[in-house]
Amino acid sequence: MMLSTLTEGQAAPSEPEEDGADAKVIDIDSARLKVKKSFARTTLGIEKDTLFPRLSYSELKVGRVLGKGGFATVREILTITPKKEFCNQGSFSFRSWADITGASNGTAPSQDEEQYVPDFDPDFDESEFQSKKFIADYCTGRHGEARYVIKAISPEVKRDASKFLRAAMDMAIETQFLSVLDHPHIIRMRAVGNGDMFDKDYFLVLDRLYDTLDDRIEKWILELKRAKTFVGKLRGGKTKKKKLFIERLSVAKNLASAMGHLHGLK
Q: pTM, whole model, 2 decimals?
């Protein structure tokens, strides 16, 4: 969520002078090219290529809305039912999508430059199905709570061509970052939607965030106040305050570890 907030203010390509369907296609192509060129200028994830399964919306059963931002809506995923007929596109790789061999910025790679060529796997469709099945098997926690969420561009944003372009670019950049981040205290991307990132039905499947740091701080303040009351002191307030202090230190340590990981990326 932090990453998507950081990218929401990014400007979209200028509006074309032409009207009609052709102008819309040109706009989307320009936005797509801008994201690819942005990736070509950075070394972030250049040595890492993580594959993510692609899911169709029909394979998901979604529940209530958990949050809504400037352009996207987050809903809980109740169940995932993998279907083999949707395992024909191959797993998703941002690195391959961005075409880091040089074609994305209009230049061909030199003869001395190592080119990235995905390994061919004759059983790739089955591999993707098994990846989906793994996610489906762990879709809910021990108490039946949803462990994953779907993040997609909100319907009202899709109806506005200009807003949709900015939102699609934000989602593409967020996909880029999440595809290379691998840390126990940073939210993880588990899968993506079928099709291109600039399709209106594109979405991300992410780990569910059960609360935010702001929520946790408010909870700590309330528990600390209770521990300081007369009744709280009789019920082990001193021990409770010590546990809260240890918990806050642990969260601070985890947060620092995550920030250190982000700053260490090249």
A: 0.72
